[in-house]
Amino acid sequence: MKKYKLYISGILLSGLLTGSCTKLDEHVYDKVDAAGFLTRRDDVIRDFLRPFEHAYWSIQGNDVYAAGEDCTDEIGTYNRQGDWQDGGYYQRMHYHTWTITDNFTSGAWNNFYQGIVLATNSLTDMEGIKDPSKLNVTDAELTDFKAELHTLRAWFYLRAFDFYRNIEIVTDVKNSTKGNPQSTPQETFAYIESELKNAINGLPTRSQLGAAGIGRWTKAGSAALLARLYLNAKVYIGQEKYTECAAVCQDIINGKYGAYQLDTRWDAPFDYTNTTLNSEVIYGFPGSLARTHWQYDAGMYFWGMTYDAAPLYCGFTDFGQSNPRYALQPGRDVDSLEYTFQLGKPFVKFQKYQDDLRLKKYKNLGNSQREGMFLYGYLPYTHSVNGVTRTDTVKGNKGPYPLFIRDQVGMFLGAKPGTKIADKESDMNHADHNSGVFLVKYPIYPTPDPNRITSAYAEIRLSEIYYTLAECRYRAGDKAGAAGLLNQVRKRNFPDGSSSLYEPGGSQLSDQELLDEWCREFIGENRRRTDLIRWGVFSTGTWWDKKPDGDKHTEIFPIGRDIMNVNPQLKQNPGY
């Protein structure tokens, strides 16, 4: 198996960002013959890799990340004294009051279908190669390329399916001039399942690809997508498939689809070493400072901290200032009393286990190492004034006072910690720049560090397979089996000998505890909405500044007005 390093470049995305590839009646791809431009090996490789460029961007592009996280109980984009008010855009995400004119409702569709079209185009090209040897490509490589493109397209379809449910299946672009009517959820489920099952045999294992294989789909990656599909089958098509899900997960853990092992450090799946063969990352997008690094973009984690946290506190000056677009939802009111609702309160859920290593304040330790996963409290830094080193602390942009970041939302302004403020209001439209603990999942190493901004984005981790299997065991009544699986991952979050691991019999496990544990391990990884829906609390639950919805129609998003105008065969989702 030849090894190809997948470098993701943002350069070619500009054409995608200026228009929708779902307007199939524009003949954009008509009369493009593979024989006309696939004349050498490099052409084939570029054609194969092209959809992966868009795929990496798509994890956050067109507000997909914002919509997926801000509608849940873990993250919020607050109106901070006028910053991020944005006409109530993010507030509508939080309150589940979005409309068909909100940008993300069309943007997400474009996001997914641009990827589907690109993958379909490349797949058609690969299928048009009758004699790969003339292009210096082996039969095995061509089989691999086609299987990976089938898997990549299925990944896009699965995300669109989860987001909208009633979607169209596009399997041909070059010979089509118009869109299709929507398929039923049952048809879409069966199609994705078939695509993934059929692709597995043609896919490589990670060991076959070698150390340069990050960003390439493997047998385990395709199987993991099957597990995601089966885990949520009851929501998608009204049929439970936990038995099928458990079987796939067990096969992955047992090494049927290649050898993987859990990382021994909690932060390793997100560190610059997560591209190596001994990483638990099953599928990831490679990032680098000089090329592409979409999880470090404004659409995701880099704008999940206060303005000067990156340059002053972390010492990372390559990107300039951050912008506090995302923060954890609060667990306590302005008087520091814990809220009584069960959902949400993510930082409080971490504090339930006080020796959790992730609870330490984020800090760079030097030599490409960090500790902690959150920014809170004062953020001190040192600087030189006339040759004298002085200590200061990060301030906001609304006053000269130092910020004290807290697990609360309100107008604290310059109030010192512990001071009771008169203003008791706490909601999406009443926040200052002290409000909300910040999540630092991927490290922000200082500018001199050669490994800064080089972590791959971990789309699928082996931890997910353990947690998925644990949920299947729990639903089958096997709490002991569930606890054992969860502890195999959780033990790295605590010091040796910690009493915070679950009891062997699983007595501490409940629906709420399992949902909380999903949050703790995968916070900020844009799966919380799907988990809340699967556990039946997304539309019925109560969390900070969020009352239950009137019905369940909000469990899928509306198809944006711009998309509806393109394809007259589409029918709007119920409730919109």
Automatic annotation (TrEMBL):
<feature type="domain" description="RagB/SusD">
    <location>
        <begin position="429"/>
        <end position="576"/>
    </location>
</feature>
<dbReference type="Pfam" id="PF14322">
    <property type="entry name" value="SusD-like_3"/>
</dbReference>
<feature type="domain" description="SusD-like N-terminal">
    <location>
        <begin position="87"/>
        <end position="231"/>
    </location>
</feature>
<dbReference type="GO" id="GO:0009279">
    <property type="term" value="C:cell outer membrane"/>
</dbReference>
<keyword id="KW-0998">Cell outer membrane</keyword>
<dbReference type="Pfam" id="PF07980">
    <property type="entry name" value="SusD_RagB"/>
</dbReference>
<comment type="similarity">
    <text>Belongs to the SusD family.</text>
</comment>
<dbReference type="InterPro" id="IPR011990">
    <property type="entry name" value="TPR-like_helical_dom_sf"/>
</dbReference>
<protein>
    <submittedName>
        <fullName>RagB/SusD family nutrient uptake outer membrane protein</fullName>
    </submittedName>
</protein>
<dbReference type="InterPro" id="IPR012944">
    <property type="entry name" value="SusD_RagB_dom"/>
</dbReference>
<dbReference type="InterPro" id="IPR033985">
    <property type="entry name" value="SusD-like_N"/>
</dbReference>
<keyword id="KW-0732">Signal</keyword>
<keyword id="KW-0472">Membrane</keyword>
